[in-house]
Amino acid sequence: MTTRWRAYDPERDFGRVREFLVRTYLAFGTPSVNWGIERWNYARYFVAPMLGAAGTEPGVPPGALRAIRMWEEMIGLWEDERGRIVGVANIEHPDPEHRGFGEIFLQRHPEHPELLDEMLAYAEDRFRDPRKNRVFIFVHETDAALRDAVARRGYAEKPDVAASHLEIRLDDLPAPVLPPGFAVRTMAEEDDIDRRRELLGRAFNHPDPADWPSAFAYRELQRAPDYRREHDLVVVAPDGSYTACCIIWHDAENRIGHLEPVGTHPDFRRRGLARAVVLHGLRTLAALGATRVPMESDAPLYEAIGFRKVGVSRPWVKAFGPGAG
Ligand SMILES: CC(C)(COP(=O)(O)OP(=O)(O)OC[C@H]1O[C@@H](n2cnc3c(N)ncnc32)[C@H](O)[C@@H]1OP(=O)(O)O)[C@@H](O)C(=O)NCCC(=O)NCCS
After folding, report:
1. Which of 99, 170, 203, 315 has the fewest CB atoms within 10 Å, i.e. the most exposed one?
2. Which CATH number describes the domain made up of 3-163+313-319?
3. Is there a contact between 251 and 67 (Cβ–Cβ < 8 Å)?
4. What are the φ/ψ torsions at residue 236 (nearest 5 degrees)?
5. pLDDT tens digits, residue range 63-74?
6. What are the pLDDT digits (tens) for 295-308?
7. Among 94, 301, 109, 299, which residue's Cα sits nearest to residue 217?
8. Stretch 215-230: mean pLDDT, rounded?
9. What's the pTM value of the predicted model, to 2 decimals?
10. Ligand 1 centroid, distance to 273 Cα (angstroms)
């Protein structure tokens, strides 16, 4: 069957790629080599608008719109003869200053391994970091097809770097326990965007408000097709301040849940707040019918909660000419 490349059309294709990710998520076993729906939503509706503007910018920051457009314009789609998506090449951080710039993501269809070479060629051409003159891609240890393809194309593995894949089954979850006076609330009840984006900024260790997500970025996130305000969880302190957070995402077709992001304000760490908000989220997902939650993280929090390690990915780097690194 022949396939053909096509540029991404945001209006038409966001939902079609989402459906493709749902269709292929379980096809490669555990863990998936493709993104889950949460990452697809989060990249377009939060990462891009956040990277494009300072947290202090009011209104609709032009840089945020530019970053969204850049992310969309870099996506390549491959379709079969019947017009069904069989491959997607994309980036996650549309900002040449970001350390993740130059990273390739290939969303694949299990019946089209022959596309890998063409997808990599496209990504090397379009996604290259011009300052470091390189691209890189994480390859799961069991993904022989991708490993062979990148090795053939001159990538070198970085054996000293690893990303852990974790998973938890959603049975037998303990009840969350919070310190007295603290409570889990949702953005369906609270929806204080300024407190919420400050918490997110601080949880990821940014004291400067310019480095927090802009109000526009948070509102964009709330427009993401799979975002639900009642699944955006915050731990509220007795004085009303926001201290920890977790957004849950539900892939009902695959009976899978996702957490993105999880964080605790630095002044409130090691008091069990992240454990409690994550357990709250996991129990909500279980009640919706999800049976497990995969996760890519090296934070000790998750194994403390009961996630177990199911695999490792390592980066492979392709450098182009002198000055590459
Ligand atoms: C990771 C993070 C969310 C943990 O939040 P927290 O509220 O401090 O976590 P908890 O108090 O619920 O910790 C529960 C358990 O996880 C483990 N844990 C949490 N933070 C840890 C750390 N820094 N080092 C080692 N173990 C840790 C411990 O086993 C802890 O239990 P204990 O305190 O009884 O030993 C917080 O440090 C954070 O926001 N970091 C920055 C953002 C981030 O990395 N997010 C997660 C990845 S997406």
Report:
1. 99
2. 3.40.630.30
3. no
4. -100, 130
5. 999 999 999 999
6. 999 999 999 999 99
7. 94
8. 98
9. 0.96
10. 9
The reply to whether domains 3-163+313-319 and 169-310 share a CATH topology is yes
Answer yes or no: is pLDDT of 13 > 90: yes
Q: Is 138 helix (H, G, I), strand (E, B) or coil?
A: strand
Q: Cα–chain-centroid distance for residue 24? A: 17
> Where are the extended beta strands (E) located within the chain?
3-7, 76-80, 85-90, 105-108, 134-140, 156-157, 163-169, 183-186, 232-236, 242-251, 256-264, 292-296, 308-319
Q: Residue length, the chain?
A: 325
Domain extents for the chain? 3-163+313-319, 169-310
pLDDT interval class at 31 (50, 70, 90): confident
Task: Output the CA 203–ligand 1 centroid distance in Å.
Answer: 11
Distance CA 292, CA 315 (A): 26
Residue nearest ligand 1's atom 19 by CA: 301
Residue 324's pLDDT band (boundaries 50, 70, 90)? low
Does 85 contact ligand 1 (Cβ within 6 A)? Answer: no
What is 169-310's CATH topology?
Answer: Aminopeptidase (3.40.630)
| SS3 call for 92 | coil
Token pair for 236: 């509220």
**Pocket probe mutation, ligand 1, options 164, 166, 270, max atoms within 8 Å of Cβ:** 270
Ligand 1 pocket residue status of 262, Cβ below 6 Å: yes
Q: Give the other-Cβ count within 10 Å of 222's Cβ.
A: 16
Residue 270 beta carbon below 6 angstroms from any ligand 1 atom:
yes
- Which pLDDT score, from 0 to 100, does residue 71 have? 98
Give me the half-sphere count of Cα atoms (radius 13 Å) on the Cβ side of residue 74.
Answer: 29
Residue 30: per-residue pLDDT: 76
